[in-house]
Amino acid sequence: MLACMGYSELIKSLDTIRMYVRSFYVYGFKGRKDFAGKSGRTYDDERRRLENYLAPFMSFRKDEGGKVSFVSIDSRRTSRNPLYKIFKAKSFTAMDISLHFMLMDILHGPDEEKSLARILDEISSVYLDGFSTDLLPEESTLRKKLKEYCELGLLCARKDGKTMLYRRAVSPDLSDRDGGSGLADMLSFFSEAAPCGVIGSFMLDKLGSAEQEGSDLFEFKHHYISSSIESDLLCTVFEAIRERRSLILTQQKNGRDHPFSLEAIPLVVYQSTQGGRLYLMAYNRRKKYFMPLRVDYILSIKPGEVYEGWEQKRAEFEQVRRHSWGVALKMNKKHNDVQTTHVSFTVRFDDGEEFIYDRLVREKRIGEVTRLDRNTARFDADIYDPQEIFPWARTFICRITEFSSSDGYVTRRFYADIRKMSRLYEEAGDAVQ
Question: Contact at 8 Å (CB) between 218 and 188?
Fold first, then answer.
């Protein structure tokens, strides 16, 4: 892609474009004046990049504050996550792209190994013969590029005495030789449904166009794609969990807050069933308590040292999560507060409505469901933050015959919400009459 209109369509910083995607899509409806500390030209350039990549989904409206841009994606009618495009348009220099094709051609055979000195000699004598010597890459530049490609899995390296030999990595054959679409279907589902699904999207790009088009058979009622822009951060988190490492995180809760850093021990990743938001459940080594971290607040992340006490903290967290409905954890200055509140409600259902009882059993995250008789069941749980359970409990509102809690405020709040809702319906009924 070429530069035009004074800006480059290629993405230089993934962190920067991620912030704008969050602002236009996740948080929504932000104008130029809402980006504190950013120049008008920077805002215009980043907005135009997004318009190029997300053209069918980018819109704007005008209000009293001026023009406001936003991204609107109907995930029910989008078989491919368009946000993955921001991972596929990295900026590069003329030397980057030249070196890429030179290296791929020089090491065209997977069994052919060559040293750095030989590669540099071939670039000079074959590919740049007759050109200015200024175009010849320096040895340090070529070494860095070879190291980068080894880390990306494009090349393999081994040591022969004191000499490092390089060869192309064998690319897996993703074509479906039997003429079926099993692999394409699997990658299509994985790329849209799995954490770090961008990996599946890259693999899907390697298939033929006919195979890709034939795999557009999945539709999702609830398709949470906003978290896909944190795929690279999430991959680092999973690697740290696998290797039992700490993480050094930089967070910023909104554009006007100052970024701050902390060290955390990653334990598990939660995803909201309502909006798909990701939370990293971690242990704060310095303050000595468990805490939830919103992944969309993370600006940068890098792995730290191996934490010897990881297994113990994971076991302790398993005890803590037995009383957590969502991500809320009670914390004080020294440790997690383990005091819980008991919540209980009874549900009545008619004959032929066994699905109500099945819902109670299937959807409860913690606690117990007791069958009292043929048409009655009771839910009981000891929970850290009882108000987290309110949205779920309200889905049974017409069938709840009794609600109680060991915290009187929680009980009063529940019944006050019902009275408030009843008044709203009465006022609406009077208006209709």
Answer: yes
Percentage of the chain with pLDDT > 70?
A: 84
Count other C-beta atoms under 10 Å from residue 119's C-beta. 21
Q: Tell me the residue type at 12.
A: K
The H or E element containing residue 158 is strand 155-160
**pLDDT at res. 267:** 96
Long-range Cβ pairs for the range 271-274 (8 Å, 24+):
271/195, 271/224, 271/227, 272/224, 272/326
Report the distance separating Cα 284 and Cα 391, nearest Å.
29
Q: Which two tokens stand for residue 263?
A: 């060290």
Asked if 407 and 386 touch (Cβ cutoff 8 Å), the reply is yes
CA 204 to CA 20: how far, in whole Å?
Answer: 26
For 383-433, the pLDDT digits (tens) are 988 888 999 999 998 899 999 999 999 999 999 988 888 888 886 665 555
Residue 120 CA to residue 104 CA, distance in Å, equals 13
Spell out a b/e string for 186-212, using b for 16 or more CB atoms within 10 Å of the CB, else e.
Answer: ebbbbbbeebbbbbbbebbeebeeebb
> pLDDT tens-digit profile of 303-320?
999 999 999 999 999 988
Q: Which residues pair with 383 in a beta bridge?
A: 341
The residues facing 9 across adjacent strands are none
pLDDT tops 80 at residue 361: yes
Tokens 């109670």 label which residue?
360
Q: Any idea how long the chain is?
A: 433
Around Cβ 245, how many Cβ atoms within 10 Å?
19
Instruction: Copy the structure tokens of residue 47.
Output: 């907005």
Burial class (CB in 10 A: 0-12, 13-18, 19+), 44: middle
Q: By the 8 A CB rule, do 283 and 313 touch?
A: yes
- Look at residue 3 and tell me whether its pLDDT is greater than 70: no
pLDDT-derived band of residue 36, with 50, 70 and 90 as boundaries?
low
Tens digits of residue pLDDT in 97-121: 888 999 999 998 767 789 999 999 9
Q: Which amino acid is at 158?
A: R
Angle, vertex CA 370, rays to CA 368 and CA 371, nearest 5: 150
| Residue 6 tokens, joined | 């004074």
Tokens, residue 253: 């809760």
300: which 2 tokens?
């940068």
State mean pLDDT over 144-172.
89
